[in-house]
């Protein structure tokens, strides 16, 4: 029982650090993009009263990556936001591994179903 | 106003929203949507997309601190995520078919319900009675640190809590919020989990729930980088400060603060929704 508690605690701490790193990384990418964006468009007027939807380069996973690599400010920010969206997903994957290592197959299965559900939304 | 000034003001306002969101376990979105729509006059579609992203930021950013304190019930969170993620997908898909007025009014009603429920009783009950069969099978019963050492608690009404979590997930996907309020109600009221455990476990689940619907919103073009950038960075800063305060703050003060803020916002959202000004 005591060994199990230690394992639980260890998984939780690794998971917490993993999340913190993911958030830090995505914040860094968002900051980088924001410098380029504000440098180029900082003196323009914001237009958010009416909804027009985003262009393709900011809505498709592949296009976001390609245009971010081309150094476009808004695309880099969007890529950073994608990293942020993926932090809970990485955590879920890590949890599955953790539960398998703990031989808690019930929770490995539960977490796997949660992962599958998130993937339905993403793809 | 230039984009530069707009970004700066939005950053500061979002930091406050993140702080409140973190302190109350709401996840920031609940304060953000009224802030973006009522104060900054931003279109509600953009507000929803932005909010959803910052909800993930709040949850992931603060979870690290919560986990270290050892009050998050990981298994309970994981089990209930079954209900919230499936609900989030349903909610996000439904969002296309409903009007902005409907979204605004629903938003207000959800806030009001949370506030009323939160005022119903303020005493802290820790249930450590008989263990339910289902809760034991799912290993949901746990303990948490208090001023005088570890306290055991048992989880009640698992089925009711699960159903409530599914509704919370639908609301989250529909309104682009973490619906932390409904999650806290499900755990605090229905499953009789200590308030501190339910707020932190709710925070833990919010990111996963939001990620389930975030992909849908991204593809629809609801997520604008220029808008999300200052909001996410601001909310992160606020949440970071909030996560450091939570463990020391009194449960009663938390609940009252939580109720007052959401009552005001609820009235504003319903009024503007009916008037059609959002």
Automatic annotation (TrEMBL), chain A:
The keyword Transmembrane applies. The chain crosses the membrane at residues 21-39, 76-98, 105-122. Keywords: Membrane, Transmembrane, Transmembrane helix. This is DUF1634 domain-containing protein. It comes from Niastella vici.
Automatic annotation (TrEMBL), chain B:
Pfam families: TauE (PF01925). The chain crosses the membrane at residues 44-67, 88-116, 162-185, 229-247, 254-274. It is a multi-pass membrane protein. Coiled coil: none annotated. Its main location: membrane. GO terms for cellular component: plasma membrane. Keywords: Cell membrane, Membrane, Transmembrane, Transmembrane helix, Transport. It is found in: Cell membrane. It comes from the Bacteria. Belongs to the 4-toluene sulfonate uptake permease (TSUP) (TC 2.A.102) family. This is Probable membrane transporter protein.
